[in-house]
Design brief:
Helix content is 7%, strand content 32%. The chain has helices at residues 3-6, 203-207, 283-290, 459-462, 468-484, and strands at 15-24, 35-41, 54-56, 59-60, 79-80, 83-86, 98-100, 103-104, 111-114, 117-118, 132-134, 146-147, 155-164, 184-190, 195-201, 232-245, 251-255, 259-261, 271-277, 305-307, 310-321, 331-332, 339-345, 348-353, 359-360, 368-370, 374-378, 387-391, 418-419, 435-440, 446-454, 519-528.
């Protein structure tokens, strides 16, 4: 029997939103050449509840160290964020999180989540679609995001960004008198079945908007070092929530079953090894190599790294809301009553249960715990909005029928198929691929069609404000990387605690014979598997 059949007073128009704040000490010195972290990967909700659900897992925001001066009439926000999570525009979501890059250009005018994945799907007006280049010959990047292996539960994914000197700085951009820098922010991954550089943000992604806003030229990550001290958090925009009021005027609620890393007794922490780097860690060696010297060691030098310490402040800061509600009117959950930050060591952030209402999750080998499902609205003193206090299921009046609410996947419209331009004169066809089509079938139920392109001829590079000579120079550098920096070498320092998560095996690919060096896989279609 549905919840509405039992009780038509249940309100399901509200949701849980907020941040799980992380407190990290400010670093000493100048470590402005990128970062790396290890974050736990787990199913935040026991069942995927539909496309309104949106939440990241633990991640960070990397800003340019330009202090973003206020320029009248211009919102100068720009960053490199992303990470593991679930998003409303994900077409093929599962309980297992996916990974996106999340590069954001001036004032969110464009964003780039991976090769071919940008703001919207209008190829006649691309907004970040060409902002990221495929670098690895062994990792296929779906436009819907990189899948982790289905069932990932408590393992850790290492990732971060290093600037690589792949392109040259330029005094002009798209013919305008504004500069483009030489920093190609490159994503390095450390997973159980893939290690090393995967993709990079093209400098033109950050500089292109300055053509129309020349006052902002030179402020962004193409040319400015990264801020060493970054915010770390878990940003949650929507977890389903249902509430009802009994005949005595008491209001109770139920949250969709929500899981968290258990963290205690040596279990995997939620976040560990938050590390910042200076240019001696990789840039200097890579530049000498790519400019004609001996091959550079792939290991990012920890002697030029700063590992930040955590403290136990911060924590889960969630509240209930509904569309249009002012932030100050949201009703907070008294989350510190049942879960708080806990340090296994100064470099590993875990969360510890503070109440018997937090339960270990069966079948997860102690890695996950389930947060309280039921809450009562308590209003005391002058604070009229009150707060939600966790209660045991038996304390909730049975006539409210909150236990019958189904938070599982609803019936929704079929997923949209991702397609790229088919015009024979387009950058997807001229010069075009050298091999394919091939297909991959990851665990999210989709089918990906992809081709092999010569690196310099991939569509992103043809839309990066590069001359043919500049693209060919880049091709030479990438062929060096393909020969020496393979997916089974070491790059990031290993995690102190935990087993590495694996990328969906369907996305680990092998180049066709004859195309092992200097060629990359590019997805051209992603649709529902028949």
């Amino acid at each position: 029997m549905s919840d509405t059949a039992k009780n038509d007073t249940i309100d399901r128009d509200k949701f849980v939103t907020g941040y799980t704040r992380v407190s990290v000490e400010e670093g000493e010195g100048s470590y402005s050449a990128g970062y790396s972290i290890y974050t736990a990967a787990w199913p935040l909700l026991r069942e995927y509840p539909g496309h309104e659900f949106q939440s990241g897992l633990f991640g960070t925001w990397m800003f340019a160290d330009s202090t973003y001066p206020k320029i009248e009439g211009v919102w100068t926000y720009s960053t490199l964020e992303g990470g593991l999570g679930w998003w409303r525009d994900t077409e093929f979501p599962t309980e297992t999180p996916k990974f996106i890059m999340g590069a954001v250009a001036l004032g969110f005018c464009a964003w780039a989540n991976g090769p071919g994945a940008g703001k919207g799907r209008d190829w006649d007006d691309p907004k970040g679609h060409y902002g990221i280049a495929q670098l690895s010959p062994n990792l296929l990047w779906p436009p819907d995001g990189v899948n982790l292996k289905q069932g990932t539960c408590g393992q850790v994914l290492g990732y971060g960004y290093q600037p690589l000197p792949l392109t040259q700085a330029k005094p002009t951009t798209a013919g305008a008198d504004v500069p483009t820098g030489d920093q190609c922010w490159t994503l390095f991954l450390n997973a159980g079945n893939f290690k090393g550089p995967a993709t990079f943000v093209l400098p033109y992604f950050y500089s292109e908007p300055t053509v129309a806003q020349p006052r902002t030229a030179g402020l962004f990550l193409d040319s400015v070092p990264a801020k060493q001290n970054r915010h770390h958090a878990m940003e949650t925009q929507y977890i389903p929530w249902a509430q009802a009021t009994d005949q005595q005027g008491r209001t109770f609620a139920r949250m969709a079953p929500t899981l968290f890393p258990a963290g205690q007794n040596g279990a995997v922490p939620a976040l560990q090894q938050v590390t910042a780097y200076n240019r001696h860690a990789l840039w200097d060696r890579a530049k000498a190599w790519l400019d004609g010297g001996d091959p550079a060691d792939s290991v990012i030098d920890q002697a030029h790294a700063y590992i930040h310490k955590f403290d136990e402040s911060g924590g889960v800061q969630w509240a209930t809301a509904w569309p249009g509600l002012a932030r100050e009117d949201r009703i907070p959950l008294a989350a510190s009553d049942f879960i708080r930050p806990s340090l296994n060591d100064p470099y590993s952030l875990a969360y510890a249960a503070q109440s018997d209402l937090v339960k270990p999750v069966e079948g997860t080998h102690g890695q996950l715990m389930m947060l309280p499902e039921y809450y009562q609205l308590i209003q005391e003193g002058a604070d009229e909005k009150g707060q939600w206090v966790a209660v045991a299921p038996e304390e909730v009046p049975s006539e409210l029928a909150l236990d019958s609410v189904d938070f599982g996947r609803p019936e929704e419209a079929p997923p949209q198929t991702y397609v790229t331009p088919d015009d024979p004169e387009s950058c997807w066809k001229q010069p075009g691929p050298v091999a394919g089509p091939f297909t991959a079938e990851p665990g999210d139920g989709s089918q990906i069609t992809y081709y092999w392109y010569r690196f310099a001829d991939q569509p992103a590079l043809l839309n990066a404000d590069l001359t043919d000579e500049e693209r060919e120079a880049l091709q030479v550098k990438v062929e060096k990387i393909h020969r020496h920096w393979t997916k089974d070498r070491d790059y990031l320092a290993p995690p102190k605690v935990g087993e590495l998560a694996e990328i969906d095996p369907a996305l680990i690919v092998t180049p066709p014979e004859g195309f092992e060096i200097g060629y990359v896989p590019i997805a051209t279609r992603q649709g529902k598997r028949s």
